[in-house]
Amino acid sequence: MTAERRVRQVKLAAASTALVRRGAVLLEDALRTASLPDAPGGRVLVIRQLSLGTIHADRSPATLSLVVEQRVRELARLAVHARSQSAATAQAVYFRDELEPFVLLATRIAQGLPLDAWFWRLAVPGLHPGMSRDDMLRLALASALRTEPGHAAAMTLVSELHALGALAPLLGALRWQDGPALARSWWGHLPSRPAPRLPPDDVGPTEQVAEPLRSTLARWARTWGAGDARALWLASVALCTRIPSRVAAPDLPSRAWRVLGALQDSPTAHLPTPREPPRQSPLRLDAPIVPAATGVVAGIAASSPPSVRALSGAPSSDKVTKPLDAIPASPAGVTAAPQARVRPGPADIDEAPGDTGATPQDTLPHYATEESLPTVAGGLLFLLPMLNALGLEEFLAGHPALADLGIPERFLRHVAERLGVPSTDPLLRVLQEATAGPLPEPSPFVLPVRFQAGAGARAPFRLVRESTGRCVAFDARARLPLASTSHGEALPPPFDRCLTTPLAHRLPWNDATLMLHAALLAVGRVTRRLAHMGLRELVLRPGHLVATRTHLDIVFAASQADIRIRRVGLDINPGWVPWLARVIQYHYQYDETGA
Questions:
Q1: 257: enclosing H helix or E strand
Q2: 8 contacts 44 by C-beta, under 8 angstroms
């Protein structure tokens, strides 16, 4: 298992210091090598206490790792959700994904609910007694930024808090120093506001920000000032809420500046300054809350962008060291409080009394699944490495309008539909939101050079010129479309030296059909050349889908492992995929029959 494992405190008791050190070495090796239950969807398990009994100094770490595995599996089956009434007394608590601890933390802070349960300081590294309300809210945002989805997770945090009516406290907790730090963590620098002001066009209209988040953005932009870096960050988040794949768009800062400029010039009546909600009850975290400090939370005010895996390498807090850095002696035997992502057994969720707001099911996006669902097209996501190799990111960067229309999702749906995958398949449901509605016409495109080489396009290229002014470039065999332009616009090299064939009639394919056909031919050729199998054999693999707000996991039976796929690396976890705004992972698991 490659998921993160974090131990907050270890207690060892022995007759001598040498035995304590020997036990520490054995325990460290056992915790690193234990095969803990895998957790599709990035599910997080927090264990209160893991008693391992007596450690025999003459035995190997492998023997102790088996004990760790058994105890963790037992506790995972008994784990309850963090919102359950019994969570405060349970020995193990789970969160549905790595973002949920920070969403629930910010929601409870905004609602004035207590945070004295044992698992909060384990689930949220850096949370400690004495933190002010604003510091805890900024910590929730900083922790979301350190997850693998990064700013996509922060975008989800903002949108869910807004849906619950708990966003104002978080935005009110941001100080002016946090604005430049948030911008640098996103783009690596603070994008300057263009001067003179950018001309109005269709790249960044305010209509791209959905209501009522648009009104919230307008209020806070007027409170902070349209030139404030916090307003730029919030406008970028608002633009990504409707289309999450925009989080990696290179022109996102310019779009955000356009939105802020449009809001500043809007004739709408002056909006009131957001007011802080009344503090319903004092927060309790084993200590009274102190007044807000003047600094900023470490992790937001950082001069360089955090790594997508910064969470696993960062220390949990000042009081929490890396596993086994310090081993205090104790007569209580061997106990550990690890946090690992494992898959707990089913547990009923009882809402705690006084836990207001939406239920967990209401806060999940409609494309998230509560459980593992069967799919007949588990191999569809094996196409992601091929698309990356064909230059998809380069194509999307050069065609921002097409990127907003969900071209990658449309292609994956196109492949699935061509192979006969039913529309009710859960994997297609995940992709359907970004593919609603047809592509506009015309939709000119130029496929990158890497695509031409990967698809085996041969020169000399042929250019078909229609009577309408549209030009379509094909390879030498006139089978693979490579570019399309309208109104007689010139194509870039090498298409400007194509053999031109004028047509008196229009081709029977629009631009969208040409793009999808080209991509289908390309991945089919790459599949046959690299994996020595057809596209149908690669894609139509039964599995189970687990979809969360930040993860998309496909679980296969161990019998589905294929050496042809493994040899070319198609089932290596892609991790964070910007143009899908998801963390993609593959899992192979044994079922009850051992298959």
A1: helix 252-264
A2: no
| Distance (Å, whole) CA 302 – CA 190 | 12
Between CA 590 and CA 110 the distance in angstroms is 43
pLDDT of residue 383: 94
3-state secondary structure of 145: helix
Q: What is the dihedral of CA 240, 373, 370, 1, to 10 degrees?
A: -80
Tokens of 145: 């930024």
Average pLDDT, rounded, for the chain? 77
Residue 230 near residue 224, CB atoms below 8 Å: yes
In the chain, how long is the greatest CA-to-CA distance?
Answer: 94
- Confidence at residue 329, expressed as pLDDT on a 0 to 100 scale: 33
Residues of the chain with pLDDT below 70 are 1-3, 37-41, 195-207, 266-370, 433-436, 488, 496, 499, 504, 591-595
The tokens of 555 are what? 């679980």
Q: What is the pLDDT of residues 404-455, one digit of tens each?
A: 888 888 899 999 999 999 989 999 888 876 666 777 788 889 898 889 888 8
Three-class HEC string of 190-249? CCCCCCCCCCCCCCCCHHHCCCCHHHHHHHHHHHHCCCCHHHHHHHHHHHHHHCHHHHHC
Neighbours of 133 (CB within 10 A): 21
Q: Report which of 33, 38, 21 is spatially closest to residue 67, judged by C-alpha positions.
A: 33
Helix (H) / strand (E) containing 335: strand 335-340
Count of CB atoms situated within 10 Å of the CB of 228: 18
Q: Is the peptide bond before 196 cis (omega within 30 degrees of 0)?
A: yes
Torsion of CA 577, 581, 583, 587, to 10 degrees: -90
Q: Would the CA dihedral through 201, 203, 209, 215 be positive or negative?
A: negative
